[in-house]
Amino acid sequence: MFTPGASYVLGPITATTDIAESCFQAKFWPQYFAAKYAVQHISQNGSIVLMSGAASQRPIPGAASYAACNGAIESLGKALAVELAPVRVNVVSPGTIRTEKERTEAYEAYKGMCLLKRVGNVEEIAHSVIYLMTNRYTTGSTLFPDGGYVLS
What we know:
globular, alpha/beta, 11% strand, 5 strands
């Protein structure tokens, strides 16, 4: 089982409750409930891969709830790895990824914040997810395909 990303609104700590909760409502809880209801259908050799984001390790200004949400997803992955073993549970935590949505300003800013000086692509994230789903000796891990964002 793989749970992809979601839409949400970023805002500073002074933002409204709706903005602060948007990431949890759109990203954390859907993954929590997907795992909860899927686990009875997953074989003992199965795998769950959750989707977080590199801001869990390197927060961006004005997005405390977004960083907290991603950190919560990573903790959820570890907790579920313990609780559901031998079902494997891992998290992929990418940096900024080029999608069909045009975000030129965000893409250019990200290039300057990561070691590889480029934005990732969906194929690179898909490869990371496939690795986590198929490596039968990896569980409770978070993989950061982020071009070195958390290191720079």
